[in-house]
Amino acid sequence: MQGKDRFGFVASLLLGVLLVALGLLAMEYVVNSWWPIDINRLDLVRAAAQGRADAAALLEAANFEIILVFLATVLTAVTGVILPISYLLNRRFARYTDHRFGELASSRLLVALRQSMAVGLWVAFCLWLQMNRSFGLAVALLVAAVLILFEILLQIRSRAAQANLP
Known about the structure:
Blueprint: H1 3-33, H2 42-49, H3 55-61, H4 64-93, H5 105-131, H6 137-163
Helix pairs in contact: 1-4, 1-5, 4-5, 5-6
């Protein structure tokens, strides 16, 4: 491993550990300190424990800001877990380097961060679907395919911009 590649991997590993720690600490705070259901709708909590409440009624009484913060903490933690893996995969399978940023490891780190955030967004979206009780394999695969196609289009755009450089 060369010096700049080693720096990039160490930077991605440290950033990943920082993101995981931040996400897990924030998630622990949100889960243990905030009450997501409106206090006036405690009858829904009892009905949910007895199996009589449906997901739509529970989400109607939920505080959406708290749910969004929880999903953001999940996105942050998953991004931190995937970041070093994404960096290593980008380093292994990179055929072209982006000359606009120079041949620095930071350009690979930015691409790896973008890709790991896409994975975190996918996991948070799947979690939100599960909260609504509408999660299905077909929907998850469709959203994953859309995110993968978006990343492919960004890669094609980057390579086309490199072809126009002297």
